[in-house]
Specification:
Elements (H helix, E strand, L loop, with lengths): L2 E4 L5 E4 L9 H4 L16 H4 L3 H4 L2 E5 L46 H30 L2 E9 L14 E4 L8 H12 L6 E3 L7 H6 L6 E9 L14 H25 L3
Parallel strand pairs: 2-3, 2-4, 4-7, 5-6
Antiparallel strand pairs: 1-3, 5-7
Helix pairs in contact: 5-7
Length: 266
Protein backbone atom coordinates (compact mmCIF):
# COMPACT_ATOMS: atom_id res chain seq x y z
CA UNK A 1 0.00 0.00 0.00
CA UNK A 2 1.39 3.40 -1.00
CA UNK A 3 -0.60 5.34 1.61
CA UNK A 4 -2.35 5.01 4.96
CA UNK A 5 -5.85 6.22 5.75
CA UNK A 6 -7.23 6.66 9.24
CA UNK A 7 -11.00 7.05 9.16
CA UNK A 8 -12.44 9.40 11.75
CA UNK A 9 -15.83 10.39 13.11
CA UNK A 10 -15.91 14.08 12.10
CA UNK A 11 -16.77 15.44 8.64
CA UNK A 12 -13.09 16.35 8.30
CA UNK A 13 -10.38 14.81 6.12
CA UNK A 14 -6.79 16.00 6.51
CA UNK A 15 -4.66 15.18 3.48
CA UNK A 16 -0.86 15.38 3.75
CA UNK A 17 0.27 14.66 0.18
CA UNK A 18 3.93 15.63 0.56
CA UNK A 19 5.02 13.95 3.81
CA UNK A 20 6.31 10.74 2.21
CA UNK A 21 10.07 10.16 2.15
CA UNK A 22 10.56 6.74 0.56
CA UNK A 23 12.07 6.34 -2.91
CA UNK A 24 11.75 2.88 -4.53
CA UNK A 25 15.07 1.11 -4.98
CA UNK A 26 14.63 0.82 -8.75
CA UNK A 27 14.46 4.62 -9.07
CA UNK A 28 17.38 5.53 -6.83
CA UNK A 29 20.16 4.97 -9.37
CA UNK A 30 18.55 7.47 -11.75
CA UNK A 31 18.57 10.29 -9.19
CA UNK A 32 21.50 12.43 -8.11
CA UNK A 33 22.73 11.28 -4.67
CA UNK A 34 21.38 14.41 -2.96
CA UNK A 35 17.82 13.49 -3.99
CA UNK A 36 17.83 10.44 -1.74
CA UNK A 37 17.58 12.78 1.26
CA UNK A 38 14.16 14.05 0.03
CA UNK A 39 15.00 17.55 1.22
CA UNK A 40 11.81 19.12 -0.17
CA UNK A 41 9.54 16.95 1.97
CA UNK A 42 6.77 18.51 4.08
CA UNK A 43 8.72 17.35 7.11
CA UNK A 44 7.10 16.14 10.35
CA UNK A 45 3.54 17.20 9.54
CA UNK A 46 2.11 13.96 10.90
CA UNK A 47 3.81 14.74 14.21
CA UNK A 48 2.69 18.37 14.15
CA UNK A 49 -0.92 17.31 13.52
CA UNK A 50 -0.74 14.46 16.03
CA UNK A 51 -3.88 15.79 17.72
CA UNK A 52 -5.99 15.29 14.58
CA UNK A 53 -7.01 11.66 15.09
CA UNK A 54 -8.00 12.28 18.71
CA UNK A 55 -10.03 15.23 17.46
CA UNK A 56 -11.95 12.81 15.23
CA UNK A 57 -10.48 13.67 11.83
CA UNK A 58 -9.75 11.28 9.01
CA UNK A 59 -6.09 11.49 7.98
CA UNK A 60 -4.59 10.46 4.62
CA UNK A 61 -0.80 10.08 4.35
CA UNK A 62 1.38 8.81 1.48
CA UNK A 63 4.43 6.61 1.85
CA UNK A 64 6.54 7.82 -1.07
CA UNK A 65 8.44 11.03 -1.67
CA UNK A 66 7.12 13.84 -3.83
CA UNK A 67 10.24 13.17 -5.93
CA UNK A 68 8.55 9.95 -7.05
CA UNK A 69 5.29 11.72 -7.87
CA UNK A 70 3.61 14.92 -6.74
CA UNK A 71 0.17 13.97 -5.49
CA UNK A 72 -0.90 17.62 -5.49
CA UNK A 73 -0.47 18.13 -9.24
CA UNK A 74 -3.04 17.42 -11.97
CA UNK A 75 -2.76 14.14 -13.85
CA UNK A 76 -2.18 15.98 -17.13
CA UNK A 77 0.74 17.90 -15.52
CA UNK A 78 -0.72 21.32 -16.36
CA UNK A 79 1.09 24.12 -14.47
CA UNK A 80 -0.70 25.19 -11.29
CA UNK A 81 0.80 28.70 -11.30
CA UNK A 82 1.30 29.94 -14.89
CA UNK A 83 4.16 32.39 -15.20
CA UNK A 84 5.90 31.16 -12.04
CA UNK A 85 8.32 28.30 -11.37
CA UNK A 86 6.26 25.11 -11.01
CA UNK A 87 7.03 21.60 -9.84
CA UNK A 88 5.80 18.78 -12.06
CA UNK A 89 3.70 15.66 -11.61
CA UNK A 90 6.99 13.75 -11.68
CA UNK A 91 9.40 16.44 -10.49
CA UNK A 92 12.71 16.86 -12.28
CA UNK A 93 14.14 19.68 -10.13
CA UNK A 94 14.78 20.48 -6.50
CA UNK A 95 13.11 23.56 -5.06
CA UNK A 96 16.23 25.57 -5.90
CA UNK A 97 16.00 24.60 -9.57
CA UNK A 98 18.84 22.05 -9.57
CA UNK A 99 18.31 18.83 -11.52
CA UNK A 100 17.00 15.84 -9.54
CA UNK A 101 18.13 13.26 -12.09
CA UNK A 102 21.43 12.20 -13.50
CA UNK A 103 21.91 13.32 -17.08
CA UNK A 104 19.62 11.39 -19.44
CA UNK A 105 17.77 9.64 -16.60
CA UNK A 106 14.66 11.80 -16.15
CA UNK A 107 11.40 9.81 -16.44
CA UNK A 108 9.98 9.52 -19.95
CA UNK A 109 6.27 9.54 -20.83
CA UNK A 110 5.90 5.81 -20.20
CA UNK A 111 7.50 6.01 -16.77
CA UNK A 112 5.42 9.03 -15.82
CA UNK A 113 2.27 7.14 -16.80
CA UNK A 114 3.39 4.13 -14.74
CA UNK A 115 3.94 6.28 -11.65
CA UNK A 116 0.60 7.98 -12.12
CA UNK A 117 -1.10 4.60 -12.18
CA UNK A 118 0.92 3.11 -9.31
CA UNK A 119 0.94 6.02 -6.86
CA UNK A 120 -1.20 9.00 -7.90
CA UNK A 121 -4.41 7.19 -8.78
CA UNK A 122 -4.65 5.06 -5.59
CA UNK A 123 -4.14 8.11 -3.38
CA UNK A 124 -6.81 10.07 -5.18
CA UNK A 125 -9.21 7.16 -5.25
CA UNK A 126 -8.86 6.90 -1.47
CA UNK A 127 -9.26 10.66 -1.05
CA UNK A 128 -12.40 10.74 -3.20
CA UNK A 129 -13.91 7.70 -1.47
CA UNK A 130 -13.33 9.14 2.00
CA UNK A 131 -14.87 12.48 1.06
CA UNK A 132 -17.88 10.62 -0.30
CA UNK A 133 -18.16 8.62 2.94
CA UNK A 134 -18.00 11.76 5.04
CA UNK A 135 -20.59 13.46 2.85
CA UNK A 136 -22.95 10.49 3.09
CA UNK A 137 -22.55 10.35 6.85
CA UNK A 138 -22.73 14.05 7.69
CA UNK A 139 -24.32 15.73 4.68
CA UNK A 140 -21.14 17.71 4.00
CA UNK A 141 -17.37 17.34 4.15
CA UNK A 142 -14.36 19.53 4.89
CA UNK A 143 -11.02 18.76 3.25
CA UNK A 144 -7.94 20.30 4.88
CA UNK A 145 -4.89 19.91 2.66
CA UNK A 146 -1.88 20.21 4.97
CA UNK A 147 1.50 21.39 3.67
CA UNK A 148 4.71 22.99 4.87
CA UNK A 149 7.61 24.66 3.12
CA UNK A 150 10.85 26.48 3.87
CA UNK A 151 10.22 30.15 4.50
CA UNK A 152 12.65 31.29 1.80
CA UNK A 153 12.93 29.57 -1.61
CA UNK A 154 13.91 32.13 -4.27
CA UNK A 155 13.22 29.72 -7.16
CA UNK A 156 9.56 29.49 -6.11
CA UNK A 157 8.78 32.89 -4.58
CA UNK A 158 10.37 36.21 -3.71
CA UNK A 159 11.31 37.21 -0.19
CA UNK A 160 10.06 35.54 2.97
CA UNK A 161 6.76 33.68 2.91
CA UNK A 162 4.09 34.56 5.52
CA UNK A 163 3.99 31.99 8.28
CA UNK A 164 0.51 30.65 7.43
CA UNK A 165 -0.75 30.64 3.85
CA UNK A 166 -4.45 29.85 3.48
CA UNK A 167 -5.54 28.84 -0.01
CA UNK A 168 -9.05 28.34 -1.35
CA UNK A 169 -8.46 28.72 -5.10
CA UNK A 170 -9.28 32.44 -4.79
CA UNK A 171 -12.52 31.58 -3.02
CA UNK A 172 -13.74 28.84 -5.36
CA UNK A 173 -13.01 25.79 -3.18
CA UNK A 174 -14.66 26.76 0.12
CA UNK A 175 -17.49 28.92 1.37
CA UNK A 176 -16.32 32.41 2.29
CA UNK A 177 -17.59 31.94 5.86
CA UNK A 178 -15.17 29.05 6.39
CA UNK A 179 -12.23 30.99 5.00
CA UNK A 180 -13.12 33.98 7.14
CA UNK A 181 -13.23 32.16 10.46
CA UNK A 182 -9.88 30.49 9.75
CA UNK A 183 -8.38 33.87 8.89
CA UNK A 184 -9.95 35.32 12.06
CA UNK A 185 -8.16 32.74 14.18
CA UNK A 186 -4.90 33.73 12.49
CA UNK A 187 -5.61 37.40 13.10
CA UNK A 188 -6.07 36.68 16.79
CA UNK A 189 -2.48 35.37 16.86
CA UNK A 190 -0.61 38.37 15.41
CA UNK A 191 2.76 36.92 16.37
CA UNK A 192 2.39 34.64 13.33
CA UNK A 193 1.92 36.29 9.94
CA UNK A 194 -0.73 34.95 7.57
CA UNK A 195 -2.24 35.57 4.14
CA UNK A 196 -5.32 34.33 2.29
CA UNK A 197 -4.89 33.29 -1.36
CA UNK A 198 -1.44 34.79 -1.68
CA UNK A 199 1.42 33.02 -3.48
CA UNK A 200 -0.13 29.63 -2.62
CA UNK A 201 -3.83 29.52 -3.48
CA UNK A 202 -4.18 25.75 -3.24
CA UNK A 203 -2.88 23.01 -5.49
CA UNK A 204 -4.71 20.36 -7.46
CA UNK A 205 -6.29 18.71 -4.42
CA UNK A 206 -7.88 21.91 -3.14
CA UNK A 207 -8.98 23.06 -6.58
CA UNK A 208 -10.28 19.71 -7.78
CA UNK A 209 -12.15 18.47 -4.72
CA UNK A 210 -13.44 21.74 -3.31
CA UNK A 211 -17.06 22.02 -4.46
CA UNK A 212 -19.07 24.24 -2.11
CA UNK A 213 -22.24 23.85 -4.18
CA UNK A 214 -21.99 20.10 -3.54
CA UNK A 215 -21.33 20.60 0.21
CA UNK A 216 -17.62 19.74 -0.05
CA UNK A 217 -15.26 22.49 1.07
CA UNK A 218 -11.49 22.38 0.59
CA UNK A 219 -8.81 24.56 2.13
CA UNK A 220 -5.04 24.32 1.80
CA UNK A 221 -2.73 25.43 4.58
CA UNK A 222 0.87 25.97 3.49
CA UNK A 223 2.83 26.80 6.61
CA UNK A 224 6.44 27.83 7.00
CA UNK A 225 8.57 25.12 8.50
CA UNK A 226 10.36 27.55 10.81
CA UNK A 227 7.17 27.61 12.88
CA UNK A 228 7.78 24.07 14.15
CA UNK A 229 11.17 22.73 12.99
CA UNK A 230 14.65 23.61 11.79
CA UNK A 231 14.75 24.45 8.09
CA UNK A 232 18.34 23.27 7.59
CA UNK A 233 19.59 19.66 7.50
CA UNK A 234 18.88 17.40 9.24
CA UNK A 235 15.48 19.17 9.33
CA UNK A 236 14.86 18.38 12.97
CA UNK A 237 11.48 18.72 14.61
CA UNK A 238 11.49 21.36 17.35
CA UNK A 239 9.03 20.38 20.10
CA UNK A 240 9.16 23.81 21.76
CA UNK A 241 8.29 25.62 18.54
CA UNK A 242 5.65 23.04 17.69
CA UNK A 243 3.90 23.45 21.02
CA UNK A 244 3.49 27.16 20.29
CA UNK A 245 1.77 26.72 16.94
CA UNK A 246 -0.28 23.57 17.60
CA UNK A 247 -3.03 25.34 19.61
CA UNK A 248 -3.52 27.75 16.73
CA UNK A 249 -3.69 24.90 14.21
CA UNK A 250 -6.27 23.13 16.34
CA UNK A 251 -8.28 26.35 16.68
CA UNK A 252 -8.20 26.89 12.91
CA UNK A 253 -9.52 23.39 12.25
CA UNK A 254 -12.21 23.67 14.90
CA UNK A 255 -13.30 27.08 13.60
CA UNK A 256 -13.60 25.69 10.07
CA UNK A 257 -15.67 22.75 11.32
CA UNK A 258 -17.94 25.03 13.33
CA UNK A 259 -18.49 27.23 10.27
CA UNK A 260 -19.54 24.12 8.34
CA UNK A 261 -21.96 23.16 11.12
CA UNK A 262 -23.54 26.62 10.97
CA UNK A 263 -23.85 26.45 7.20
CA UNK A 264 -25.67 23.13 7.32
CA UNK A 265 -27.62 23.50 10.57
CA UNK A 266 -31.08 22.02 10.16
Amino acid sequence: MSFTLHTGSLPLLISMPHIGTEIPANMQAHLVPRALESEDTDWHLAQLYDFAQALGASVLQPQFSRYVIDLNRPPDDAPMYPGASNTELCPTRFFNGDALYREGCAPDAQERARRRSAYWEPYHQALQAELQRLHRTHGYALLWDAHSIRSEIPWLFEGVLPGLNIGTASGASADAAITQVVADVCASHPQTSHVVNGRFKGGYITRHYGAPAAQVHALQLEMCQNLYMRERPPYAYDPDLARRIQPQLRAMLQAALHACEVLYAA
